[in-house]
């Protein structure tokens, strides 16, 4: 508990234009990894534009570690097929949290993260003060695959008794 900074909630919104891995479609799901932690969304059957709308919550002890996403197509009779991967850093998000920006008008942009060759962002990602908390929406372009993007939102949860930010 003394190493715990807090919890990172990832709202896995949806996939867009994911690769076809079955005859006409795919049965996609996402695995999220941070350090040794590994979480998984549910499988959305026969859909290359799945809407998960699921919250996955990871404990954060080292904010310099990247969050890694792996998208797979669920197969019943063989190994699941890879449908791409992506990763992102939570550094800019954590820096915005450390500013302690209580009282800002909802919708205030705190910082912007631009797509580069080193990250998987498809578009500019904004860290925003929304409804009394810091959030970050991002669209990640999948690597090692012919097409696909993942849309998600980051949110922070403070834990009483943790080291905190």
From TrEMBL:
C2 domain segment(s): 1-106
Keyword check for Ion transport: no
Pfam families noted in UniProt: C2 (PF00168)
GO molecular function, one term: GTPase activator activity
Intracellular or extracellular location(s): Cell membrane; Nucleus
Chief location of this protein within or outside the cell: membrane
Classification via SMART domains: C2
UniProt entry keywords in alphabetical sequence: Abscisic acid signaling pathway, Calcium, Cell membrane, GTPase activation, Lipid-binding, Membrane, Metal-binding, Nucleus
GO biological process: abscisic acid-activated signaling pathway
Cellular component annotations (GO), alphabetically ordered: nucleus; plasma membrane
Family note: Belongs to the plant CAR protein family.
Alphabetized PANTHER family for the sequence: PROTEIN C2-DOMAIN ABA-RELATED 1, PROTEIN C2-DOMAIN ABA-RELATED 4
Protein name as catalogued: Protein C2-DOMAIN ABA-RELATED 4-like
Gene: LOC115735111
